[in-house]
Specification:
Elements (H helix, E strand, L loop, with lengths): L5 E6 L5 E9 L4 E2 L2 H7 L7 H4 L1 H10 L2 H5 L1
Antiparallel strand pairs: 1-2, 2-3
The structure holds iron/sulfur cluster (SF4).
The site of iron/sulfur cluster has 14 residues, from helix 1 and helix 3.
Length: 70
């Protein structure tokens, strides 16, 4: 299953539109390269839960969110 933070956008939100959808990471708030999008989509032997450092850092940080803000 693809990463839940993966989105596809046709624009950058600043007036630039693309002729095709581009992979966008909701955690980073940035577009990702087609190579990274393979990880996001769990293509081939990739698994975003183990191969994406952004995902892993985000998920491991969620458990300590209250401690960080408290
Ligand atoms: S870069 Fe990582 S966290 Fe972002 S959408 Fe892809 S797999 Fe998910």
């Amino acid at each position: 299953m693809a990463c839940p933070y993966l989105k596809y956008r046709r624009s950058d939100g600043n007036g630039t539109r693309f002729d095709h959808e581009r992979a966008y990471c909701g955690i980073q708030g940035a577009f990702v390269s087609p190579m990274i999008a393979d990880v996001c989509n769990d293509r081939d032997a990739f698994d975003h839960t183990t191969h994406c450092d952004v995902f892993r850092r985000h998920e491991s940080g969620r458990g300590t969110e209250h401690a960080q803000h408290g």
